[in-house]
Amino acid sequence: MPEKTLQQDEIDALFEAARSSAPETKKTEPRARVNPFNYASAGQISTEQMRAISLLNDLFARNLTHNLAAWLRTRFQVNLVSAEQIHFNEFLLRIPEISYVASVRLEPLGAVSVLQLDLALAPPIIDLLLGGDGKGGALRELTDIEESILGSVVEIVCRELTAAWQPVGLSFSFERRQMQTQVARIMSVAEKTLCLSFEVRMPHSSGLLNLAFPAVVANTILRRLTTEWGRGRRHAGDAREKLQTSVRRIRFGCSLQLPSVRVRARELEGLEPGSVLPLNLAANTLPLWRVGGQILSQARAIRQGPHRAARMERVISGEER
User: Fold this and answer.
1) What is the chain's mean pLDDT, rounded?
2) Which of 48, 170, 195, 277 is least surrounded by CB atoms within 10 angstroms?
3) Location of each CATH 3.40.1550.10 domain in the chain
4) Per-residue pLDDT at 180
């Protein structure tokens, strides 16, 4: 057969027919982005939860500062240093060889947490409670009497923790002191713990107070903490003003008194009305104005009509208290 030569218009027609009969390419749907999941991060505390924890424990640090300072009658400062999630094994590695470690029960969970206090703080605290000046001492193990005295301090710490953690319904009760060899049995060494570290400063010593909470706290109570805390912070526009108005009606116990002094027992014997007791204070020493047990200023006792009054002379800063 003779070969047929296609004209240009026929070639164009064939290409047009081929294009029209070709199946339309389907538009590819965008694929969902898939990220790998790290099971080691399961149960990790969120930023919002950690923020709520810090707010609660700042409150605990302030309350403990005021109450222990009033109880010990000396400058006592507690500050939250860090809140982090670490394995219990890492927490154990941070405990000094000579240290005070106690178990604290958390109710209603029935869980047990660990409290660790640097023993550098023990000598001044014990010395103050026994009538001394709160001087520091050599780092050593405690005697039975000293351990009992320090246990009463831990009970106060647990009481203030209960007050601060009341929004999440947790209460803390001191169980007993634990020896170093027994601490590792309280929790699994691989368990994730919530570790809170507080710096404690006294006039002659300083140290750390560390708390380790088990995973059950981080996984259950902290979720509730974040929800309740976030809900509680959503106030109406005038709620702050109403709260301030209510707070201004609160009455605080106040006193105007001279600085505390020490008097020998023999000077107290035979005291009777009209006796003069030397206080070993300068004649121009001003009394201290205390509100709720906290020193606010120096003041002078004056008369205002038929009543006694106090005239403020100088405000005392936080560093001087």
Assistant:
1) 80
2) 277
3) 43-232
4) 78
At 253-266, the pLDDT tens digits run: 889 988 888 888 88
What is the reported pLDDT for 186? Answer: 86
Rounded CA gap, 258 and 55, in Å?
A: 36
**Distance between CA atoms of 153 and 157, rounded to whole angstroms?**
6
Q: In the CATH hierarchy, which top-level class contains the domain 43-232?
A: alpha beta
Separation of alpha carbons 69 and 77, rounded Å: 8
Q: Is 314 helix (H, G, I), strand (E, B) or coil?
A: strand
Torsion of CA 228, 225, 51, 248, to 10 degrees: 50
Q: Which two tokens stand for residue 13?
A: 């027609």
**122, 106, 243: which is closest to 175 by C-alpha?**
106
Burial class (CB in 10 A: 0-12, 13-18, 19+), 55: middle
Please measure the distance between the N-terminal and C-terminal CA atoms of the chain and give it in whole angstroms. 118
In terms of phi and psi (left: phi > 0; alpha: psi -120 to 50; beta: otherwise), the region of 280 is left
Helices assigned H by DSSP within 167-261: 180-183, 215-216, 222-232, 239-247
Distance between CA 12 and CA 107 in Å, rounded?
87
Which tokens sit at 236? 């109406």
